[in-house]
Structures are given as C-alpha cells and as structure tokens.
Amino acid sequence: MAEPMYKQIAEDLRKKIETGELAPGGQLPTELDLRESYNASRNTIRDAIKRLISSGYVETRPGQGTFVLRNIDPFVTTLSRDKDSGLGGGEGASYLSEVSKQHRTPEVGPVRVEMQLARPEIAARLRVPTDTQVVSRHQERFIDGTPWSLQTSFYPMELVTSGRATRLLLAEDITEGTATYLEGATGRKQVGYRDWITARTPDENEQKFFGLPHDSTVFEIFRTAFDQSGVPTRVTVTVFPADRNQFIVNVGTLPDPEYDAR
Amino acid sequence: MAEPMYKQIAEDLRKKIETGELAPGGQLPTELDLRESYNASRNTIRDAIKRLISSGYVETRPGQGTFVLRNIDPFVTTLSRDKDSGLGGGEGASYLSEVSKQHRTPEVGPVRVEMQLARPEIAARLRVPTDTQVVSRHQERFIDGTPWSLQTSFYPMELVTSGRATRLLLAEDITEGTATYLEGATGRKQVGYRDWITARTPDENEQKFFGLPHDSTVFEIFRTAFDQSGVPTRVTVTVFPADRNQFIVNVGTLPDPEYDAR
DNA sequence: GCAAATTTGTTCGTATGTATT
DNA sequence: CAATACATACGAACAAATTTG
Questions:
Q1: B124 touches chain A (CB under 8 A)
Q2: Which of A70, A196, A73 is nearest to B262 (CA)?
C-alpha cells in the first residue's frame, strides 16, 4: 500500500464529488457510516475529511454533518481599463455600478473613518514616515448578500489639516468618487495607479467576516494612486476571499470585453 | 477555556515565531518535548503543529523535526506596462531579462512541444471548438535555483498547418519572443492582451514540481493575446506558487517603477 | 420549551510504520 | 544497525452544536 488509507479514502470521496455522485450542497454519509463503509476508524475517516476540507471540496457543520460545497459564481474585478486611464476597477465609487453590470446586487456597509498611525506598508507607499497620522476610510462590501471584500483607503493627513478635503473625515459615502472629489477640492488629479497583488491566509477578523476557514486564502491588493506631479494621494488596501474573486487586467488594444468562459 | 488546547498551543508557538524567539530556519522542540512543556498528549501537539503548517509558519521533515519556514524573497511580475503597449511582463522571452533586472538568476527548462486537444477553458479563449487540435508549448522556470512557475502556451493549429509559423513546433526557445516571431512569420501583430487571474490549490504535478503541500495555493493566470484584427493568437497559462510570487499592475501615468516596500 | 438523539469537535492513550541521522 | 522524530492508524471517552420528538 503506497498511499496511506486516509488519502485513499479522501481520493475516493473526491471522485464521487467530481462525478456528481455526491452533488453540490448534498450531505456526505456521517463519520460513523463512512467508518463502516471503509472499514476504518473514525479518526482515519476524519483525516480524510480534513483533506477534502483543505482542498476546498466540503465543509463540516457541527451537529449537522459534512456537505459538498456549492460552486460559487466568482465575481470578476477589472484592475485596468485601456480607455479611461485614471480611475480603475474595484474601487469605492465605481463598485456599485460595476457589480450591477454583471447582473448582481451590490451592497456596501457604512464607511468607518479613523485616524491611524501608518504602518510601514502604508507609510512607504504614501511616502510618509512610519507611524505618521493618516486618515483611514474602511468599508465592507457584499454581492448578492455574501461578504465579498473589505476595503480600507489611507490618505495623507495634510489633505484634511489644510482644510481642503475635509469631507474625507465624514463617515459617509463620497458618491462621485474620492478621486473626483479630491481633484475638485485640492486640484490633485489622479493620473494613474499601481496595484500590488499578493495572497495570504486571512486574519481572525477576515475569517469571521467572510466565513472562511483559518487555512484559506485571500487576495490582498494594494493600490497606490498618483497625482499629476507623481505624488501618491492615496493607498487603498482591498482584501478578497480567493474562493469567490477573480481579476482581469487589460493591456493594449482589445476587442470588446466579452466576459467569456472561465 | 473558550479555545481548545491545540489552538492555544498553536497560538503560543505562533507568537514565539512572530517575536523571533523561534528564528526562521530554526527547529522547534520535538513533539515529545512539546508534549511535556504543554502537558498535552502527542496528538494534541500534532494538531497544533498541523495548524501552524496550514497557516504557512512551519514545515515538518520526517526523521528530522519541525522547522520555522524561512521568509521567501518574493518575485514580482509586472503584468502591465504603460509605455510599451503590446508585449507584457512575465512571458517566455522577456522572462530572463526581467528577472535579471531584479538581481536574481533566472533559468528555464527545455521547451516541451505537444499537440493537444484544447480543453474548454483554452478553446473558448482561442475561439476554437472544444477538442480542436492546438499547439502546446510548455516550460518550467526557476529563479535562483528554486522552481518558480510553470508556463504553457497554446496556439491555433492553423498557424503551423498554413506553413507560416513552423518554428512553433521546434522544441527550442524562440529567443526574440514568440510575439515578435509570429508578427514576422504571419503578419499578425500582437496589439494587446487580457490577463485572467485566479487562485486555486495545486494539482499533483504542481505539488511535486514546486514542493508544495496539497493545501497550499497557486496563482493561475490566463493570458489571451490579440492581433490587430482583434483575433486571439495565443493563450498562455502560467501557474505561480502564491508563497513566492506577487504581481504588479500599472495603469495610467506613473512615476518611475521604484520597487519600494512590500 | 425541554429532553433525547444525532453528528461533529477535542483529547487522551497506544501501537506500529517510515524517513533520517 | 540503532536511535530519533515524524506519520499513520486504532480505540475510547467526553464535549459542543444541532435537530428531532
């Protein structure tokens, strides 16, 4: 026996899921049933199920059972457009209309405004010293009622201390978009941005908000926006669960943005 | 006790790793030692270590012990440039020079050329029927000796059956870049591309090649390149382990591409 | 609304196998 | 070959969450 028993059992169950013998949303036999089917101990069955969980096939609900995960229809965020250089996809203001275009229902939570000390990742991108005070605007975002992303934008404090962009301090949406608002209020026009895409495991807050297991994966995207002088005006950090989000980057001249096969 | 013991032990060990009390590359006490330190059974200790493994903090080596993972210096791939619309980052030909720019040593394996039946994901992007024959060019790529990515490009068969781009069939590098070669050989100029970014768990091949645990994460990026008529000339699928790869997308006008803080 | 039954979660003990030194 | 350390597997008991009667 090359492969240990728990891997064989996991593989067998995986096949039954792939072939549809165990349908999405359906329930697996209980641990005690599987224990008899496979002639193994309950712990071995549990090891097999743990494998299926971390591979993203099933979930267990205490007191209920083990269930095949439904295939989530992923949401696709476009990080770059070719036409409108300037503002891009996935951001606060454009979020609502962009999601609607994909025939899905977006919602956003209230904006939470805080003064914070910039941690190194943020400070370096905003080109301010670490632990400088910055304005933080945080928002939860949902699609069709499902938690979809967490977004936090950081702005240099001088934007508000100078008295020019004080609406950043109000805990309310800036419906025309912060890029547009900042251009009118400060004359600093957003002419470009750079996205830095990473993946990591979710922290405790993110696990709770998204309902993710501790060993799942989230995308973390740092967007640094620059004004016409090449000075960063803003850093936006957005966290997306990897199981329900995908991204598109368009470069050069392209045919119409058909959302074709996945 | 709200939290179960194995989570508390994992959390305690995690803190010791975060504070540097357990240094990167260093060895944890053996399971039997930890069993005494924490007054728990060996199974409970193992549950705690499993948590640390799936959170990416440690690895176990049978017969040796449990070790704190060294922080990998991630490689950053730029998916879009503002200047040169056309060819972009992370691709076959430009790979070697691009990696060298980051003061790291790139290597590539031999090109493996195959005729394949296009699976649906590929066929839809190339706009050919599923199971149509396509040319597949596959290559392994390394940085500083570490397996870094697996890349497979798919080309419509007509490019070679028409006798115009027969070098695609040769199992050798096309040093000037396939985009340049195809333009000369067929007159089809690459004027843009679209990247589709997803994350998933690695398959068995990928686990073996990259040395990844079965529950880790890889990025999978589908790049569809288009010619001046808006027709796809190529689909390139690249798989990157998420623990050692990050991506940048540039949009609009930007200051010099300083590779600043992470 | 409560008690019982069901199902998964945690913890222990033990034995044996496999990889490395 | 022996010692060490992790991997697999079994059995058992009790806890916690949920559903059922």
A1: yes
A2: A196
The whole-number pLDDT of residue A257 equals: 59
Percent of chain B with pLDDT over 90: 67
Nearest protein residue to nucleotide C10 (CA to C1' distance) is B4
Same domain as B229, residue B160? yes
**Domain co-membership, B62 together with B88:** no
**SS3 category, A98:** helix
Q: Which domain holds residue B31?
A: 5-68
Q: Are residues B100 and B205 in the same domain?
A: yes
Residues A147 and A208 in one domain: yes
Alpha carbon of A132: minimum distance to chain B alpha carbons (Å):
16
Instruction: Give every CB contact of residue B259 below 8 A, 6+ residues apart in sequence.
Output: B76, B102
Per-residue model confidence (pLDDT) at position B183: 83
Tokens (6 digits) for B215: 């529950």
Cβ within 8 Å of A, B 62-91: 74, 79-82, 85-86, 88
The CATH number assigned to the domain holding B46 equals: 1.10.10.10
Q: Return the number of CB contacts < 8 Å for A and B.
A: 150
Residues A26 and A84 in one domain: no
A130 interfaces chain B, CB cutoff of 8 Å: no
- pLDDT, position B258: 57
Question: Within this chain, do residues B139 and B239 fall inside the same structural domain, yes or no?
Answer: yes
* The one-letter amino acid at A192: G
Contact A234/B at CB under 8 A: no
pLDDT tens digits, B122-144: 999 999 999 999 999 999 999 99
Choose among A144, A121, A146, A143: nearest CA to A131: A121
Q: Give, as ranges, the nucleotides of chain D with any atom within 7 Å of a protein CB.
A: 3-13, 16-19
The whole-number pLDDT of residue B262 equals: 40
Q: Same domain, yes or no, for B233 and B179?
A: yes
Query: Residue holding tokens 């001046």?
Result: B228
Nucleotide lying nearest to A42, CA to C1' measure: D10
